[in-house]
Amino acid sequence: MPLAPKLRSLVQRLRRVRGHSTLWRGRFASTTPLSRDFGLDRGTPIDRYYIESFLAAHAQDIHGSVLEVVHPTYSRRFGGDRVTTQHVVDLTDANPNATIIGDLAEPGVLPDAAFDNIILTQTMHLIFDMAAAVRQLRRALRPGGVVLITVPGITPVQLSNDYRWYWSLTDDSLGRLLRDAFDPHQVTVRSFGNLFAATAFLHGAALEEVPIRKLDNHDPAYPVIVAGRAVA
């Protein structure tokens, strides 16, 4: 087969892969996203690739008495048998997984010095008084306990009647929040993402629709998420 027909055949095959054709053919010019649900209706949201990479890198911190928000998905996945006591916090008792009910920013909702690890993924932006919430997280950790936190950076905003989306953060803002409540020497913060990842995420492309290798380049000017680790 001559080269030109081979190339046309390859392009046609790529275009049949869901999402690839629209992404590779100038999708950036569209004013309509592929998905308004972070790509969840198409596959795995791109930000979860970074969230889960961060948690996997710090899996040894997830042990003992662990607190997670809404559902213990990541505690079970990354903590496994190291988790001896599992707690879940949510705003309402409508969640059957919840063992603690209330607003993380409110004093007294979390017990004092109760947890070896707190996993707080993509939650802080829903709390208006983030500084108060971080102080309560610090109070709820046992000495040597670790909070693993991720927050949105460059992101679509999900509109909901159930909550308000207040913030998107940077390395500097998450770093300051954590260092104001924890020993600054016990805080590390980093971002994940680049221009390609941010663009694909804004359009609602799923992880399965993009080349993974292009997500691994880090450009701090385009943070899709920001992640922090702080030790009590």
In short:
This protein is α/β, with parallel strands linked by helices and 232 residues long. Helix content is 30%, strand content 21%. The chain has a single domain, classed as Vaccinia Virus protein VP39 (Rossmann fold).
Describe, in plain words, how this protein is organized in 3D.
Mean pLDDT is 91; it is low at 10-19. Helix 4 (73-79) links the parallel strand 1 (64-69) and strand 2 (83-90). It contains 7 helices and 7 strands, in the order αααβαβββαβαβαβ. It has a single domain, classed as Vaccinia Virus protein VP39 (Rossmann fold, 3-Layer(aba) Sandwich), CATH 3.40.50. It is globular, with a radius of gyration of 20 Å. It is an alpha/beta fold. The longest helix has 14 residues, at 3-16. It has a 7-stranded mixed β-sheet with strand order 3-2-1-4-5-7-6, sandwiched between helices. The N and C termini lie far apart (65 Å). The protein is 30% helix and 21% strand. Helix 5 (130-140) crosses helix 6. It has helices at residues 3-16, 20-24, 46-57, 73-79, 130-140, 171-181, 195-203, and strands spanning 64-69, 83-90, 100-101, 115-121, 141-152, 187-192, 225-231.
